[in-house]
Amino acid sequence: MSAELRARVLAAAAAEASPTRAAINRRKLFLAMIAAASGIGTFMIFATLTSEGQWLGLGGEVTPGQHLERSVWLVLATGGGALGVAAMALWLALWRGGSMLGRTRGWLLYGGVLIPISLFAWKVGCSIAFGDAMVDWPQRPGVRCLSLSLLVATGPLLSFLAIRRSAPVRPALNGAMMGLAAGACAWFATDLWCPVAYVPHLLIGHLLPLFVLAGAGALLGQMLLSPRTK
Question: What is the pTM of this model?
Fold first, then answer.
């Protein structure tokens, strides 16, 4: 780079004011509020249209003449565990850690493996203790839960990408972690709404969306978080 060109670049950089830390924090807070509002709003609309506004699913007709109810304690146990895993996923996805370059590959890979395993194992383990929640619901194979999870997670995922804005290294892996974080938040909402813990149902309606969102996050991360060159 010539001295003249270097001077022009430095002058242009100096002329463009950098945002203050307070402005950056306000922007992140605003985007976080959008993420929460979009997820909650989508969940409420979906529940209203598909289950007559029933946001907390405690039970229903398994087969004609067979009605089952979830214990409130089971809902608190599975929902509380899901909320804890979602909080950990958000921490991994949105906080850079001790480096300006973001989380190491190891942190992201371990998180990507442990988040879905933890959600699934906690749900099954708690449900086994209550027994009835594990029975087959023939009329609920998991398609509605799959749709709910993907719809609820879409707004948060886009907001998370806007919060981070860039990932100088491993943009796809960072994007995948954001997809998992959005999926973990959606898992919590779906767990409140859905009383079914039958394993094939969980695999289709609750676990599959995590991998779909991780893949979508990886693609979007590669496109939107990579360093831009002109």
Answer: 0.85
57: in domain:
no
Q: Is residue 63 part of a domain?
A: no
Question: Which of left, alpha, beta for 165 (phi over 0: left; psi -120 to 50: alpha)?
Answer: left
Quick check: is 55 in a domain?
no
Residue (of 182, 129, 131, 180) closest to 155 by Cα position: 182
3-class DSSP state of 130: helix
**C-alpha distances in Å from residue 229, one per residue of 4, 171, 177:** 21, 15, 24
Q: What is the CA radius of gyration of the chain?
A: 21
Nearest CA among 197, 70, 54, 174 for reference residue 125: 197
Instruction: Count how many domains the chain has.
Output: 1
What is the tens place of the pLDDT at every residue in 194-223? 999 999 999 999 999 999 999 999 999 998
User: What SS3 state is found at 221?
Assistant: helix
Contact of 61 with 155, CB cutoff 8 Å: no
Residue 130 belongs to domain spanning = 70-230
| Beta-strand pair 59-63/66-69 | antiparallel
Structural domain contains residue 10 = no
